[in-house]
Amino acid sequence: MSRHPAGRAAHPVDGGAGPVPHILYVHLHAPAGSVPHEDVYEMLLDLLRGITPVVQALPPDAALADVRSALRYFDRDAAGLAQLIRVRALALHGVDSTIGVGPNPLLARMAAADGPACAVRVLSGDGPAVEDFLRNKPAAALDGIGPASAKTLAGYGLDTVGRIAATPLGTLQRALGATAGRRLYDRARGIDPTPVVRGAPARSIGGERRFGQDELDPERHRRALLSLTEELGARLRTERQAARSLTLTVRYADRSTTTRTRTLHESSGHSAVLRTTAYQLYDALGLQRARVRTLSLRADGLLAEELTARQLSLEPGDDKSRLIEAAADRARARFGPAAVRPAGTAHRAPRRA
Question: Quick one: which of 97, 124, 304, 311 has the fewest CB in 10 Å?
Fold first, then answer.
């Protein structure tokens, strides 16, 4: 993998030995470590659509773009287009970005994550280069490998992508099941047939909290989750949506990550439901004094609020909390997002990432 220097690429690259890199994974970074404003994010999408019509939004701060059709038009290779996008985003909107360039979405995402922020990193489609890039990555670095699957694989001694790639398909299918085993077998070799879906509707929303230093205190972790669930809940209700499940991702000091997903008892945009589920996900990890760098929370499986069915509750506190929540939403709509915040976040709240 190479880190592409700033400036114009000479010409589109043929590649010869493998698929030409043509997928961009663009991760936007807002100033001062905050989440990009929705208007800025929309401007990023418009900027990408000015390069290629095949753009898939990954809110709140990322997108995939297939630039195959743009290589000849702009007389640049994909790395050159990535540099053009990064420069334009910085010059026009004052935001920097990290862009991974690869032959498919899996490798583009992994290239973007493989190093410091604010750079363009390119992974060619050359077989030996892909194999070398993946060999020593932890199993959890592959999309779709959660803690349970990683633990199962570790029981077989398969703790790196290289060891997984060297394992027969039948062994993986016996360990994880036919479909999951086949998918893992392919991804460990850098194979990802998933297309970039133009104009795909957002099926998830998310947020992130990055600590100023590697954080050991579980109470600060929980305050960050409280803030995130309040933010996600308010956004879901504003957009009249509900989530079917919640995904928590913890990034540690050594850049490894753990991801857990839990399906909600009923689809909801209610902050209290999200908060309870987020705490359950966190508690199940048993982190104790883990050095945590970032906490990310994603609400998945979004559907229109009117399509959900709320289960009746005999708890008087439930109705009261929803009335308070509605009043808080009205205050935010009138005075801005910071008008109402959970009391638990008032003391030394973590910075938004």
Answer: 311
Q: Is 290 left (phi over 0), alpha (psi -120 to 50) or beta?
A: beta
Higher pLDDT, 120 or 258: 120
pLDDT in tens, 48-65: 999 999 999 887 788 999
DSSP 350: P
Q: What is the pLDDT of residue 316?
A: 47
Residues whose CB is less than 8 angstroms from the CB of residue 112 and which lie 6 or more positions away in sequence, other chains included:
25, 27, 98, 99, 100, 121
Query: DSSP letters along 125-193, please?
Result: S-HHHHHHHHTTSBGGGSTT--HHHHHHHHHTT--BHHHHHTS-HHHHHHHH-HHHHHHHHHHTTT---
Please tell me the distance from the alpha carbon of residue 338 to that of residue 288, in angstroms, as a whole number.
31
Residues paired with residue 160 on neighbouring β-strands, in sequence order = 138
Planar angle of CA 209, 25, 77, nearest 5 degrees:
150
Q: Tell me the CB-side half-sphere exposure of residue 36, using CA atoms within 13 A.
A: 26
Q: Give the DSSP H/E element, type plus range, for residue 106.
A: helix 105-113
Chain mean position to CA 183: 20
CA angle 187, 169, 248 (to 5 degrees): 40
Q: Tell me how far apart the alpha carbons of residues 139 and 162 are, in angstroms, rounded to a whole number.
A: 9
Tokens of 101: 């360039």
Whole-number Å distance between alpha carbons of 234 and 336: 12
Q: How far apart are CA 61 and CA 334, in angstroms?
A: 25
Q: How confident is the model at residue 334 (pLDDT cuts 50, 70, 90)?
A: low
With 50 as the cut, is the pLDDT of residue 1 above it? yes
Strand stretches in 230-310, DSSP E: 241-252, 257-268, 292-300, 303-304
